[in-house]
Structures are given as structure tokens and as C-alpha cells.
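Field log, afternoon session.

UNIT: design team B
ACTIVITY: writing a sequence onto a fixed backbone
BACKBONE:
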């Protein structure tokens, strides 16, 4: 696990983790977007449902965080209440027509797609970020409710975790971005309930465009399951009022 120095470095970046007090003891309201959400469960920390491969890779990457070259990204179902409101206001201002058709009552049931499954049944994952190399590695263990062809992951589930990973890579560099294009080549089916590594790389930034690619591989690196390229667009900077990058790196304000 983390040494004290690494834990402090991570804590400074994220303001949480490594013994930081939970949201409630920080005095944060648990009430978000006018409904109840538990803020302080970080889904990217080890759970009993994680298999030995997932756990071993978590430990390996956590060790790499000790010198500060890698950062483990925390993952909550929701960001803080204030940030949720700021973010919603920004998005609604950016997409006014969508804002008109969004069912405000249904919003009370909203949650991050990849975190909406019972533990172990859907997407179990943890991401590690290397700023110098512009890489994010996602350790992903997909559960039985992600089946497509019998015994294998659904291609849409694979696309989802790819989008989440390359998307996170774009966010940490560009702030508020949206996927404009995602090209996926499925090379080999991924066995259900296996653990895989998703290696993503920020290839280039051109103005508001971020180009991110990734490979999904077996944990021994011998099988290339999937490869993808993507284009993310930073939402118009002049309209930007919300720092998503900061929220990702530091999800619970001190
Ligand atoms: C926390 C978990 C993170 C997970 C990440 C998940 C992210 C997502 O899944 S987002 C959901 C899926 N994506 C969407 O719904 C986006 C829908 N699309 C849109 O809203 C808009 O097209 C949007 C915001 C991407 C771009 O719109 P806008 O800001 O008006 O930019 P626009 O002026 O059209 O384009 C900017 C530039 O990008 C280019 N571009 C835009 N789309 C594309 C595309 N699909 N392919 C190639 N180029 C494109 C344009 O040609 C333009 O280039 P240039 O500046 O050289 O002329």
C-alpha cells in the first residue's frame, strides 16, 4: 500500500483518500440535486468482489504512485453538491434545447452509468494517471451483467469502459469535454468476468480537439482485445464556468 509520502502527495492533489475524513465529517451536505446520495464511497478502492488479478494490479499501480509519477483517480457516483449545481448550470446553458426536454423528476434517480451496478456485477475499475506520459491506465474487471455473446463481454460494455477511460484522459487535460468520435476495432472477444488493462494515451491537442487512443489487453499483455481512437471536443472555453478537471482530481472539496 501507499507510503506516507505518497499518501500525502495524493492527498494534496485530491484532498481525500489516505485517511481523509469522509464527506459528512467535513460538514458537506449529503443532499445533491435535491436527492440523497452518499458522497463518500470511493468506488475505486478494493472491495471483496475484486478478483485476485484486479487486486494485484491495484497494488502494483498503487506502488507506482509512491514517487508521485502516477496518481490514482478516485471515483464517486456524484461530485460535490456545489459542483453538481455549477456543472448542471453550465451544461444547461451550453445545451439549452436539451435542457428543455430533460425530465427534472427523473434526474433525481440519475447516477454515473458505470457506477450504477451492484458491486461485482457490472463495471469494477480503477484508473491511474501519469501526467508526464499523458497516460491513463484503467484496470477493469467486468461483471456477469455485462454479457453479450454467451461467456463474453457485450461490445457496448467494452465501448463504455473505453469511453470512460479515454474520456478521463481528455478531461484531465482539457476540462469539460465531450466525445465527438469513437472508433473501435474489436480484435478478440473478452472473456466475461476477466480482468483487463486499458492503456490510453493522449496523442495530441489541436485547439479544442483532443485525440486520445487506447488498447485493451490481457493483463499479461499477450492478447490485444480491442483498440480505439477517439476525438474529444473541449466545450467553448469562453463559456466555461466549471472546472471539471479540478473536480476529477479533487472530488471532495476540503
Ligand atoms: C466521468 C466519466 C467520463 C466519461 C466520458 C464520457 C463522455 C461522453 O460519452 S459524452 C456523450 C457522447 N457525446 C455527445 O453526446 C456529444 C454530442 N456532440 C456535441 O454535443 C457536439 O458535436 C460537440 C460538443 C462534440 C462539438 O460541438 P461544438 O462545441 O459546437 O464544436 P464544433 O464547432 O461543432 O466543432 C469543433 C471542431 O471539432 C470538429 N468536430 C466536431 N465533431 C467532430 C467529429 N465527430 N469528427 C471530426 N471532427 C469533429 C469540427 O469540425 C470543428 O473543427 P474545426 O475547429 O477545425 O472547424
Amino acid at each position: 500500500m501507499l507510503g506516507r509520502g505518497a499518501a500525502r502527495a495524493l492527498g494534496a492533489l485530491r484532498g481525500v483518500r489516505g485517511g481523509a475524513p469522509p464527506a459528512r465529517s467535513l460538514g458537506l451536505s449529503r443532499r445533491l440535486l435535491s436527492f440523497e446520495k452518499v458522497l463518500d464511497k470511493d468506488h475505486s478502492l478494493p472491495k471483496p468482489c475484486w478478483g485476485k488479478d484486479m487486486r494485484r494490479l491495484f497494488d502494483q499501480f498503487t506502488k507506482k504512485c509512491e514517487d508521485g509519477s502516477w496518481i490514482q483517480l478516485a471515483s464517486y457516483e456524484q461530485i460535490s453538491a456545489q459542483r453538481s449545481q455549477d456543472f448542471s448550470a453550465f451544461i444547461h446553458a451550453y445545451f439549452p434545447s436539451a435542457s428543455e426536454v430533460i425530465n427534472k423528476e427523473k434526474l433525481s434517480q440519475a447516477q454515473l452509468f458505470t457506477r450504477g451496478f451492484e458491486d461485482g456485477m457490472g463495471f469494477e475499475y480503477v484508473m491511474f494517471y501519469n501526467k508526464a506520459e499523458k497516460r491513463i491506465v484503467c484496470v477493469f474487471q467486468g461483471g456477469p451483467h455485462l454479457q453479450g455473446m454467451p461467456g463474453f463481454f457485450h461490445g457496448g460494455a467494452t465501448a463504455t469502459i473505453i469511453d470512460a477511460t479515454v474520456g478521463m484522459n481528455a478531461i484531465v487535460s482539457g476540462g469539460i469535454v465531450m466525445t465527438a468520435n469513437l472508433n473501435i476495432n474489436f480484435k478478440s472477444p473478452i472473456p466475461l468476468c476477466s480482468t483487463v488493462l486499458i492503456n490510453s494515451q493522449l496523442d495530441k491537442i489541436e485547439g479544442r480537439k483532443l485525440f486520445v487512443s487506447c488498447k485493451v489487453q490481457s493483463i499479461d499483455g499477450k492478447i490485444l482485445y480491442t483498440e480505439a481512437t477517439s476525438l474529444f471536443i473541449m466545450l467553448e472555453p469562453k463559456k466555461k464556468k466549471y472546472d471539471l478537471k479540478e473536480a476529477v482530481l479533487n472530488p471532495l472539496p476540503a
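LOG NOTE: The chain has one domain: 4-249.
NEXT ACTIVITY: expression trials, pending approval
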